Every structure is written in C-alpha cells, then in structure tokens.
Amino acid sequence: MIKNRYIVLFLALPLFCSCSKEAGEEVNPNAPAGLEARIAGVSLVTRGGAATASDISTLGIYAVNSVSSETAYGTAPAGTYCEYKIDKGVASPKDAAAPLWLYREKATIFSCHPAPSSASDIASGGTATDPVPTVKIPAAAIGHTQSAIATVSGNVYDFADAAHDYMYGVAYDDKQSTEAARYLATQPVADNGHVGAGTSGPKVAIGLKHAFAQIKLIISKDAAYKGDAKITQVTYTRKMKTLKSDGSTTMSLKDGTLTNTADLADTHCSFTFAASGGVATTEATGEKAAPVILVNYVLPNAASKSTFSVTVDGKAMTMQHASDPEWEAGNIYSYTISIKPTGLALTGFTVIAWKDESQPDIPTI
Asked: Which of 37, 22, 131, 142 minimizes the C-alpha distance to 76?
C-alpha cells in the first residue's frame, strides 16, 4: 500500500551577518544565519486537505542540537521552536523580533503543519541521541458530526479542512529514482556553518507526510429507484480511534505516530443535511451521475466491521459491511453506495494514496 506523501519544501539557509563587511574586514564567524523557507514545488496534489503551497499558511520548525557538546538550541532532546508564516511560497518567522537563528552548530530539523501557536504545545521527548518531539492535536481537528449545507456548485461536501491537515516533516532527497524513495525515514539536518558574506549555506529539503487518513462516501441513485433520492442524514459507524476531547492527543514529529487517542467501541461519522437535503441522481442522457460525496478526516485504524445508514426520502436504510480494512495514514478510502429499491448496496470500494490520480469508478472532484 502506498505510504503517505504530500508536499516538498526546501528550506534555504542564507547567511545574514549582523554587521556589514567593509573592505579588508573579516566577517564575524559567530554571526547568526537566518532560516528562510521556500516552497520549491508540490510533489503530490491531494484530494481534500492541503492541495497547494497556498493552502499552507503556517509551518512549525523545531531545531534540536545534533552534537552533544553543543547547546545553541537547548540541551538535547529539548530544542528551540519557531512558527513560520507562508506567503506566496516563502516562509518567514511569524514574529520578526524573535526569529529562529542557525549558528555554526549542527541541528536536526523537525517540522509540522499546522504550526502550533505556542511552543508549549511541542514537548521534547526521546533521548539526546534520538530526540522525538511531539505536538498536541486539538479535538476540533476532526469533526465526526458535520452539518452539510446544500451547495449550488454540486453535491460535494468536503470537511477535510486544509488548516487541519496534520503533517510531519522528513528529509526529502530528489535524487532518488522514485517518488516513494525520496521521502526518507529521518529528519533533515542543518549544518550551515560560516560560509562567508553574500553566500548561502546548504539547503534543507523537507517532505511533509500526512498523519491522518480520509474517508470518502459516494452515494448514488440506482436507475431502478423511483424516488427523488433526497438525502437528509448519512451515518457511518465503525470501531475507530478518535482524538481525545481534552486535546491531549499528540503527533510525533519523527514518524507521525499518534498517541493518547480515544478508542471507542462504536464511533459514528455523521452528516446531517440542511432542509433542502442532498439529492443523488442517476445518469441522464449525455450527462454523468451526480452522487452525493462526503469527505472527512479519520485516524489510522485497525480493520473492523462497519455500518452505513442513509435517510433517503424520509426512510432510513441500513447496510452492514463485515470486512472494512485497516486504515493507514496518507490513504483515502472511498466507498460507493447505491440507493436501490430494496435498500443500500456497496457497489465500489477503492484505496488510493493521498494524491491527485483518477479513480475509474467514481467521479473526480
């Protein structure tokens, strides 16, 4: 199964001197270097969640010293945090008066999206030689009960908000032959050093990976169904992990592992429509079907049975699914459900990596 990939950022580390260089003067070797991040390109485009660099407004950078005798960023595994803002692909410290400086010391660069508003939301962990910082994830990042307002552009209700697309950064190597191989299992290291005035230090390339999965429910109307197919309620039920209501769930900035999640025996993803409802249509002459499509984030979960319930034309229809697979971070799990005269039927199921590629059996959104 394709692992979770998303977007590549290149953190350029140009050297800014605190004093100007006069003719014949030596540059202060202890002058700080400012950290500047630039979005060099999008490697994969998502369906739901952040789709382009413009969808990323914040980026959290956490630097941890890599050499035991160095403490510019604190005593490892503790480090220094800085929130960056993204504007037209360029990242700069949100607080210009308190930027994150890189000295000559070597640092492991951990990163996350969205950036926490406070350094207190990132906790140091692990050991000095194997730091594992974590970031808190608020319960509001995933809403399992949603109210779908009827849209004028179609029947797509996307609740995978880009601002809640939780990701962690790993080292990215564009010299690898395949996209999968370019996302490494380690974090990038910044070793800027003193390179002289007017020159830049080495680039640090970060590949962001998703910590969440997505589900997509595609509800269509069978040609034999004679009703209007007006949908007012959709509920998907399955044993699944959820975010803790007190905001204590955390994501590892090393490998995206989620800890302190709530594990409920019977959890619902529920969508309630406005009075106008959503209407699933069949294919008409020369026109494609317009199913109701619901998209939402979910946490990675073990395999489980599930239940689909759809209230259509005022009648509740229920369908059991005995073999729902394991959900893995970075994948989208799409269920195509058909409204038939005798009830609901699961007519399609696909698993794709979280990227922009066509799916032959359901509409592309």
From this structure: 131
